[in-house]
Amino acid sequence: MEANSASSSKWFCSICMLLFLILAAFEVAHCSVTYDRKSLIINGQRRILFSGSIHYPRSTPDMWEGLIQKAKNGGLDAIDTYVFWNVHEPSPGNYNFEGRYDLVRFLKLVQKYGLYVHLRIGPYVCAEWNFGGFPVWLKYVPGMSFRNDNGPFKVAMQRFVQKIVTMMKSEGLFQNQGGPIILSQIENEYGIESHSYGPAGHRYSDWAAKMAVGLNTGVPWVMCKEDDAPDPVINTCNGFYCDYFSPNKPYKPKIWTEAWTGWFEDFGSPKHQRPVEDIAFAVARFIQKGGSFVNYYMYHGGTNFGRSAGGPFITTSYDYDAPIDEYGLIRQPKYDHLKELHKAIKLSERALVSADPTVTALGNYEQAYVFSSTSGGCAAFLSNYHSNSAVTVTFRNRKYQLPPWSISILPDCKNDVFNTARVGVKASTAQMVATEVKILSWQTFSEDVYSLIDDSSFTHVGLLEQLNVTRDKSDYLWYTTSIPIRSTESFLHQGRSPTLTVGSSGHALHVFVNGVKSGSVFGNSKLTFRGGINLRAGVNRISILSVAVGLPNNGAHFETQSIGVTGPVILQGLDEGSKDLSMQRWSYKIGLKGEAVNLDSVSSSLSVHWVGGNLMASRQQPLTWHKAYFNAPAGNDPLALDLSSMGKGQIWINGQNIGRYWTSWAKGNCGQCSYAGTYREWKCLSGCGQPTQRWYHVPRSWLKPTGNVLIVFEEIGGDASRISLVKRVVN
Ligand code: GAL
For the residues 540-561, what does the mean pLDDT come to? Predict the structure, then answer.
């Protein structure tokens, strides 16, 4: 009897186990993400999804949770991030996934808040990020050609993409493993570039798609702005508006991978803003025309810390006029108005995914899009495309007021619960408020312009391209050469100065003659310094400090763009006429002395001779290092340095590189914000003549309670003693 019951319970267990396995398998199959022409299908359900870009290295890990929580409260379903190859693999085969680069930790936090992930692996990302996300060493792999049907490139790209996918799988992060990733991107906006690569471009794009699909992630892949994306890869749209967009096959959903909430800035450029009415209108237009996935680029832009900004000239702030500002604070009315939009669309979700719209004209500029079915109920979008006239329309025997350039959403085909142009939220004002913090004990150290030829320099006949020499170990490269001047030269006796012309490919040049500054110029590609210089009888030394301000991040073959002193270098006004110095012997020195002795890292900051005093700090000398100490202010308000008294350079706090600053390049091209109801005038500008970026984010988590070390390297000349620490307060 007992034996019998034991064996029957064994049977029972086996059957249970079998049932469990079948159910588990069913569940796994069920968890995969697929799509049809209407939308992504998750757990068997069509979904209308809102997503927002938050790039993990553009904030600090202690900020991540707050940002994600705000994204969730703002009505987002997903977070979108690029993966930044150059921070993860700084040298071939050496990986870094720590701190701000801890991708897995970031994604697990997103999962903790019940949000999905769109992982844009690229690995080309554009993103205003240094070199578009490619490590600089990649350029120097023999035979390399980026984003091309090129053996070395494809090997390296596949290795990195595989590495990320394997990491995601081993952490169980794909949706079919119970993880948050529902979508992945390969490449980025290749369609526009591919023409420059001819048939090879097409072969590469095809290869990239197949390679990605072959990694069997269980979630769909997208290629943004790539009309030729081969099945099953979905081609998607990026832009200010995307309602006109159709995927390349009728069975693919209409996905908007970058709905631009504002725009980025270059040093010297105006500040960009996009009115929320216009974004909301663009999103509603997209949804009414059958769109089902919208990602806001950016939802939180953040900060280009260190030398991560692309370029040239992308600012350290990547605020983007996003719904969450650079400092992690909510920007109103952008945040709440979009939240209301999401609610209205979510109320219409069943109707939207279940039916195709019936479109009827309600007037010359007015239309009704009605989504109606027995399974999904009825939702309607009433639109007024006139850019400055409000109208009253009649829909199903009821009257509706439609402001210009707006859409009303009726989740039950009756009640107008939201209109894109009716903003019921008060605008927030952000202020930078003084803190009680004193920045004390200023000390300075002048970069040595006299002894640039030492053990760490080398010579070469002719001019070398800058990146080929620095490999981006530093922004700075010294080019030095000598010119002997006979005492009989006429200009010495006539009070004339010879003219020096220096041809460069960018981005900034500071010219010194015999250790004395002759001038500076800034610009991209064709950049020329021209000026009279003081030469004396005997040997004269011309030293040019060439400065990179962010490596290019877009354009076909961007890796072949030159920077630095590329020539010609010509001296005019000598008795022999003009003298071409380009093919002389030049000596090269990578980086600054201050960098070499690691002034930027706290421990070795004592290894040069600092001179103390506020007076020294205020002397406005070029190429000067400044150091001071401060205690962290009380409270939790985000912090920033006000650098309006400075010119151009870099800042470090406790050894962490805050980023490049450039306050002497004031923004031009200012105009008023004239939101005319179209996207014609989206540059709402203010503060004409002010620096594009005056404040530089200091993450709280980089500070100790007391004795924080601030190091500033100033290229042009500034008054460091007037630098102050401010807090950001939003009302
Ligand atoms: C897009 C690109 C993004 C970003 C954006 C501008 O074209 O895909 O990575 O560069 O432009 O912010």
Answer: 97
| CB of 264 sitting under 6 A from ligand 1 | yes
If you measure from the C-alpha of residue 126 to the centroid of ligand 1, how many angstroms do you get, rounded to a whole number?
A: 6
SS3 readout for 265-286: CECCCCCCECCHHHHHHHHHHH
Q: Which tens digits make up the pLDDT trace of 249-273?
A: 999 999 999 999 999 999 988 778 8
pLDDT in tens, 503-531: 999 899 999 999 999 999 999 888 999 99
Question: What is the widest separation between alpha-carbon atoms in the chain?
Answer: 124
CA of 296 to the centre of ligand 1 (A): 12
Active site residues: 189, 258
Across the range 237-249, mean pLDDT stands at 96
Q: Mean pLDDT over residues 467-481, rounded?
A: 97
Query: What residues contact residue 468 under an 8 Å CB cut-off, 6+ apart?
Result: none
Residue in 308, 294, 428 with CA at minimum distance from that of residue 55: 308
pLDDT tens string 54-105:
999 999 999 999 999 999 999 999 999 999 999 999 999 999 999 999 999 9
Question: What is the spatial distance between Cα 212 and Cα 219, in angstroms, rounded to a whole number?
Answer: 11
CB 189 less than 6 A from any atom of ligand 1: yes
State which of 297, 300, 553 you would mutate to test the pocket of ligand 1, scoring each by most atoms of that ligand within 8 A of its C-beta: 297
Distance CA 58, CA 99 (A): 12
Bridge partners of residue 324, in order along the sequence: 300, 330
Distance (Å) of CA 17 to CA 7, 142, 177, 219, 592: 15, 55, 20, 28, 68
Structure confidence by residue, pLDDT tens digits, 395-416 = 999 999 999 999 999 999 999 9
Q: Hunting for tokens 């200023």 — which residue is that?
A: 442
Q: Does ligand 1 have an atom closer than 6 angstroms to the CB of 309?
A: no
Measured from the CB, is residue 89 less than 6 Å from ligand 1?
Answer: no
- Classify 441 as helix, strand or coil: strand
Tell me which residue has tokens 């994306």: 229
CA of 306 to the centre of ligand 1 (A): 20
188 lines ligand 1 (CB under 6 A): yes
Q: Which atom of ligand 1 is nearest to the CA of 128?
A: 10
